[in-house]
């Protein structure tokens, strides 16, 4: 019976990792930035993997909060982090759109800003991808009675499932976008990408 229960818990964290990460506010920003920045598949995959790792770490941190402060507090804390991440995603999208618009309108005057945009967008994107998956916490809570080996196995599978889903969806979506041509709008690609990211951030607030 314990073996069957453990197997179900392992399956549960894999399912949570995959289906939660499939929500667009996780991979759409990466795909949009990859397309506008002409990233290689390798760079897109690295960025997605880093975001997935951050997601895993933040979720496990919430698990620690469960032990210290209780489930109800942890759920409220997770909701607050998700809210902050959504607002930050909106702010980043607006900033990226404005910077892209200014560069498109006057490339020479704002060429110096491009390096800061390139440097900042990956780091900020990783931060935005680090909001926790609160729905995965009950499975870890239920597994605590079986000891550290099962918890470590669940953590490893959860991390792999989350990171793999991030990478696959981001790389495939960025590749599909790269094959598409938007004609004259290509000039405003970064501005449009920023607006899409901001809209995704708005949508994520309604999913909380």
SSE arrangement:
Blueprint: H1 2-21, H2 24-36, H3 41-69, H4 71-105, H5 111-128, H6 137-143, H7 148-178, H8 189-207
Helix pairs in contact: 1-6, 1-7, 2-3, 2-7, 2-8, 3-4, 3-5, 3-7, 4-5, 4-8
How is this structure best described in words?
The structure is a single chain. 83% of the residues lie in helices and 0% in strands. The protein has 208 residues and is mainly α. Helix 2 (24-36) runs antiparallel to helix 8 (189-207) and helix 3 (41-69) runs antiparallel to helix 7. It is built from 8 helices and no strands. The longest helix has 35 residues, at 71-105. The protein has one domain (2-207).
List keywords for this structure.
83% helix, 208 residues, 8 helices, mainly alpha
Radius of gyration: 19 Å
Secondary-structure-derived class: mainly alpha
**How many strand segments?**
0
Percentage of residues in DSSP E strands: under 5%
Give the ordered list of helices and strands: HHHHHHHH
Q: Name the helicity range.
A: over 70%
Q: What's the short version?
A:
This protein has helices spanning 2-21, 24-36, 41-69, 71-105, 111-128, 137-143, 148-178, 189-207.
């Amino acid at each position: 019976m314990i073996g069957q229960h453990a197997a179900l818990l392992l399956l549960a964290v894999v399912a949570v990792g995959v289906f939660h990460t499939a929500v667009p506010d996780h991979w759409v920003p990466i795909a949009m930035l990859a397309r506008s920045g002409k990233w290689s598949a390798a760079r897109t995959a690295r960025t997605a993997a880093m975001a997935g790792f951050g997601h895993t770490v933040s979720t496990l941190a919430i698990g620690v909060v469960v032990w210290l402060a209780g489930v109800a507090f942890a759920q409220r804390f997770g909701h607050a982090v998700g809210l902050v991440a959504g607002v930050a995603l909106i702010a980043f999208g607006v900033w990226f759109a404005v910077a892209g618009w200014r560069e498109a309108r006057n490339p020479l005057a704002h060429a110096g800003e491009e390096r800061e945009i390139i440097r900042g967008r990956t780091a900020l994107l990783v931060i935005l991808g680090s909001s926790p998956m609160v729905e995965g916490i009950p499975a870890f809570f239920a597994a605590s009675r079986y000891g550290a080996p099962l918890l470590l196995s669940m953590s490893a599978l959860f991390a792999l499932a989350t990171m793999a889903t991030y990478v696959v969806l981001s790389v495939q979506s960025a590749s599909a976008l790269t094959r598409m041509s938007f004609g004259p709008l290509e000039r405003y690609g970064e501005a449009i990408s920023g607006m899409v990211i901001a809209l995704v951030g708005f949508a994520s607030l309604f999913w909380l």
